[in-house]
Amino acid sequence: MNIDIFIVPYEKKHILRNMLEIYFHDLSIIDNLELNEAGLYGYKYLDYYWTEQGRFPYIITADGHLAGFSLIKNTEADTAAFEVAEFFILKKYRNSGVGKALMDRMFSLHKGNWTIDTSMNNTIAQHFWRNIVNSASNGRYEESTIEDGTRLKWSFKTSKH
Questions:
Q1: Distance in angstroms (rounded) separating the CA atoms of residues 155 and 76
Q2: DSSP assignment of 132-145, as one string?
Q3: Alpha carbons 22 and 20: distance in angstroms, whole number
Q4: H-type helices in the chain, by residue range?
Q5: Mean pLDDT value of segment 118-125
């Protein structure tokens, strides 16, 4: 499979906006999300990825087809501390290595300290992130529960790249 990862230019923001709707649809059953009055989930932080420093919108393609995205943000100004704000791989490409390839690239491009969190209700994501974090940190990471026990968080420093 030919995988390409690129930062989304402003002119292509609509592609990411559309993919975010699919992502939130998938999460709606887990996180009890509801559509707004316009029939959309919406993502109020999307524009910040082109107006604020330290935010990085990426799309991944597999064999030329859209396969997912990752929204990364720098959590502390002027430091190498990053967070996965949102991450999504289309169901068709899950368990194919696409998600791992995307995160390997993120860790290579943004070296330093990382935090990743997911819903306690999302056991599939927990399994995925444990494997990714373990690999990226060489097994040296901290796992904790946050937000009144509703989210699971991993903190680590990338050691792989």
A1: 14
A2: HHHHHHTT-EEEEE
A3: 5
A4: 13-31, 48-51, 98-109, 123-137
A5: 95
